[in-house]
Amino acid sequence: MKITSANPADISELRRRAEARLSENQKGQHSQTEAEKTGQDTQRLVQELQIHQIELEMQNEHLEQARAETEAALDLYTDLYEFAPAGYFTLDREGTIRRANLTGSGLLGVDRSRLVNRRFGLFVSQNFQAAFRAFLTKVFPSKSREACELMLLREGKPSFYARIEARVCDNSEECRAVVIDVTERKRAEKKIEEQANLLELAHDAIFVLGLDEKVRYWNKGAERLYDWTAEEVIGGGFGKLGYEDRNSFEAAKKILLQEGSWSGEVRKLARDGREVVVASRWTLLRDSAGNPSSVLVIDTDLTEKRQMEAQFHTQRLELIGTLAGGIAHDLNNILQVIITNLDLATSAAALEGRLRKYLEDASQGAKRATNLSRRLLTFSRGGAPIKQSLDVAEILTHAVLLALSGSKLKAEFAFQRDLNPVIGDPVQLTQVIENVVINACEATPQRGKLLVRAKNVDEDIPLPSRLPAGRYVKIEIEDRGSGIPDNIRDRIFDACFTTKPGGSGLGLATVKSIMQQHGGHIAIDSLVGRGTIVSLMLPAAAHRPDATLASLPPPSVKSTGRILVIDDEEMILSVVGSMLNSLGYEYAGAQDGVQGFDKYIRAKAAGNPFAAVLLDATIPNGVSGLEALKLILEADPDARVILCSGYADSDLFKNAEQLGFRAFLAKPFSISEFVSVFNKVLC
């Protein structure tokens, strides 16, 4: 027997193994007889046949094994093909189904026997027929895999979205198509699209930043708020948003990475440079491995709200100012009567020692009430400072010790030698210092030290406060208290902003206003848990302050003459008249501008003119004080008119000389102040 289908090497091996098996079989048999040995040729032929028989048996074993392996592989292939997660179809050029697996028939809801030789297009939704025909036309000429997504129909069940991928077979007459149900993916995409549409419709600015601060998503709300389009910012740096304070941004980012979220009020700059105030909420997003990947930011515009609040606060302050100014004006008139009478009583020749002490104590109390009245004026339109040269060490020491009275803090002063004087209103600057010190006491409930320093600032040293070049004195008040949290540091100077229960929120707003009116600057450097340093910059005065009135003898009257007093308060006319008479002046009074002007003209015409006029600028009815001034100056350009007011109005006192006044006196004034002013005007 000749084996033609096997490899010669395999045949040799098969022959060797067959001979070995035959030899093994013959070992167990009896020895041949002499008779049998005589037929050598016959025996060799039988042996050859036996070997070939064994070879055939072994080949049959190999064939059986190969058939079993082939059947197993075919079964495996059939299972993989039939029960694959995707539907497999073989289509001809016309789209006729030639073959389909069980999954494919299951997708279409039709038994496989009914699918073969039917057009696949019958299962395509009407709206997608044209797309399917275009797809099929494209598959056969193409050498690569083509794909499309269609809506497919199935018997007895709802239609579904499917993705079809196909490639032409080797015979070029058929293509193999894979059909995958993508309905759930389509639903998810639709849901994402709906959510994206909601994000686009949201009024808030919503955007996503990478950890590299590159913008990855930018909704319409962000476009409206910041005036940058998505095309302009996506992939760009966050710096385009003009984050005003990068230090605050880095601090917020650090908290975000530690805690997973951050929220706070932020000031940013829009594309056109306008400031935008937003309530910003950041959420840290993570990837599938749990690592930080990006940041979701939602910004709610608070600009209009803050502007309305600021307007409300301004109106509230104006209302308070009007009320405070009216109270201060009336209080100053009353104090004028008290102080003048006390001065007159104290100057009497024969006074028993104890009575003089009582009068002096009352006078000191009246002066303190005067300071209180001037503080009320800080909130009014008439709160302009009455500036003079001041000794910094003296006013600083006095104000700090007064504010620390009863507290647990102990002051430590460090003043530079030859400290320059400053130019300012002693009452208002005392108010500034007291306010700062009181805040320090509240921030340091335990015992501790309050460091108070003052030094000259050379005009050549660059000033971070944007003050004009010049000579300044820098005051620093440092506490070791709780410090100011970052999230409120930008608002501490806002009117009516406070963190204290029952607080008015006017303290630091007033301090800032006073410093600005003095041509100075206030800055605050604070660290939570470490303390706060308040720095006050005040312009240096050109000259040293004069000795205080208390240390000087009462000035003597250097001139006499007739004095006209125009004031709507009858008691002011009475007490000022008594003071003038006691000083040796002749007195005449008028309660309104018309009456005062008439008396002035008549006296001038009669040849007995008034030497000076003391004019209250705030006469409520009829001709006002300023109108009376104009009438008097028109009739007599050389008239010596002295302004007198309980408002200390900024325009009046600042422009007194330009308006035609020779000098001014702020109510309430003492006899010494009155004499000093009149001596300068009349001499």
Describe the structure.
This protein is of the alpha+beta class. About 45% of the residues lie in helices and about 20% in strands. The protein has 22 helices and 22 strands. The chain has a five-stranded antiparallel sheet with strand order 2-1-5-4-3, sandwiched between helices. Strands 7-6-10-9-8 form a five-stranded antiparallel sheet, with helices on both faces. The N and C termini lie far apart (about 160 Å).
Count the E strands: 22
Catalogue the unreliable spans. Answer: 1-6, 501-505
Round the Cα radius of gyration to an integer and report it: 52 Å
Mean pLDDT: 79
What is the fold's blueprint, element by element?
Blueprint: H1 8-27, H2 34-37, H3 40-82, E1 87-92, E2 97-100, H4 102-108, H5 112-115, H6 129-139, E3 146-154, E4 157-168, E5 174-181, H7 183-201, E6 205-210, E7 215-218, H8 220-226, H9 230-233, H10 246-259, E8 261-269, E9 275-286, E10 292-301, H11 303-346, H12 353-377, E11 388-390, H13 392-404, E12 409-415, E13 422-424, H14 426-443, E14 448-457, E15 472-479, H15 486-489, H16 507-517, E16 521-527, E17 531-539, E18 562-566, H17 570-583, E19 586-590, H18 593-605, E20 612-616, H19 625-635, E21 641-645, H20 650-654, H21 656-659, E22 663-666, H22 671-682
Parallel strand pairs: 12-14, 18-19, 18-20, 20-21, 21-22
Antiparallel strand pairs: 1-2, 1-5, 3-4, 4-5, 6-7, 6-10, 8-9, 9-10, 11-13, 14-15, 15-17, 16-17
Helix pairs in contact: 1-3, 11-12, 11-17, 13-14, 14-16, 18-19
Which terms would index this structure?
single chain, 683 residues, alpha+beta, five-stranded antiparallel sheet, 22 helices, 22 strands, 45% helix, elongated, disordered N terminus
